[in-house]
């Protein structure tokens, strides 16, 4: 759709409201992309819609056409359900770890290749992703060994999750979370020394950070708050003594941002193909990177 330029002179670059061309605005309708001024903004589940789209949605309701989120997912009433389930899974696994002890953590945390067992009893065994334990790439993303660690990650999940769940839809949000978690683990597997363990949901959380930045940019929101928060968390990863896996942060951030861009900016025609095709490409790239790393460790 062609956007009208603002009517305040050549020095202004923001488009004019489609109903009031003389009013510049940086906000657009989340359904049709028309620029809309404050008088024409109507609150929606995500962002704002123009009066025409709201009327069209009301008319379509009579024809049993279900409204869609910004990314094409189904609009639901509870936009925190998946976030609550993911939070509950992380807390449940943490409680199990407290109950079963360190061995439970050792069995499921991320480790490339290492010896495990008791030297004095001769019970040493080779463990790690390179030894075929590929499940560690995902299971480690639900493990936490410290109260502060799970507390920080779950607060971030509760803060970032619901807006993304509302904008993307439940299925796409789950895919974003798991793909970001896997991205963080694979980058850690590739860059961290082979016998250094790591765990935590940080890769997934940084994927949500990246996705939030993409979503806010799409809705023309001020990005400075999310960039400041993201920068603080990235810097923390490089502070000596905290033992924070910055590699997982970086991997999750990149994968989350790329996948979110495909989810949010995919064209309406063939949208699902672009979105899930991108998911498949990213997953394939991560698998390939893990395979190459495994070959290097065993070679």
TrEMBL record:
Keywords: Hydrolase, Membrane, Protease, Transmembrane, Transmembrane helix. Pfam families: Rhomboid (PF01694). One of its GO terms (cellular component) is membrane. The chain crosses the membrane at residues 85-105, 141-161, 173-192, 198-216, 223-242, 248-266, 273-292. GO terms for molecular function: serine-type endopeptidase activity. It is a multi-pass membrane protein. One of its GO terms (biological process) is proteolysis. It is found in: Membrane. Residues 132-264 form the Peptidase S54 rhomboid domain. Signal peptide: none annotated. InterPro entries: Peptidase_S54_rhomboid_dom, Rhomboid-like_sf, Rhomboid_protease_S54. It comes from the Bacteria. Its main location: membrane. Belongs to the peptidase S54 family. This is Rhomboid family intramembrane serine protease.
């Amino acid at each position: 759709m062609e956007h009208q330029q603002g009517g305040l002179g050549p020095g202004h670059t923001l488009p004019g409201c489609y109903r009031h061309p003389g009013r510049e605005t940086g906000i657009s309708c989340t359904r049709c992309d028309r620029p809309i001024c404050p008088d024409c903004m109507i609150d929606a589940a995500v962002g704002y819609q123009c009066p025409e789209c709201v009327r069209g949605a009301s008319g379509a309701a009579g024809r049993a056409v279900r409204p869609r989120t910004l990314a094409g997912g189904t609009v639901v009433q509870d936009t925190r359900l998946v976030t609550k389930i993911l939070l509950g899974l992380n807390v449940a696994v943490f409680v199990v770890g407290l109950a079963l002890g360190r061995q439970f953590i050792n069995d499921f945390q991320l480790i490339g290749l290492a010896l495990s067992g008791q030297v004095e009893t001769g019970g040493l065994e080779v463990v790690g992703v390179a030894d075929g334990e590929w499940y560690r790439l995902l299971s480690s993303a639900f493990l936490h060994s410290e109260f502060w660690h799970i507390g920080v990650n779950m607060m971030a999940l509760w803060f970032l999750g619901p807006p993304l769940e509302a904008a993307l839809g439940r299925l796409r949000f789950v895919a974003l979370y798991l793909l970001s978690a896997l991205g963080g683990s694979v980058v850690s597997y590739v860059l961290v020394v082979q016998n250094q363990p790591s765990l935590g949901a940080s890769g997934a959380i940084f994927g949500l950070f990246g996705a939030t930045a993409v979503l806010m940019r799409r809705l023309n929101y001020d990005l400075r708050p999310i960039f400041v928060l993201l920068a603080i968390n990235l810097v923390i990863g490089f502070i000596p003594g905290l033992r924070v896996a910055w590699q997982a942060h970086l991997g999750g951030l990149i994968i989350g941002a790329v996948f979110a861009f495909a989810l949010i900016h995919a064209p309406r025609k063939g949208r699902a193909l672009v979105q899930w095709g991108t998911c498949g490409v990213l997953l394939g790239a991560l698998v390939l990177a893990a395979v190459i790393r495994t070959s290097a460790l065993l070679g």
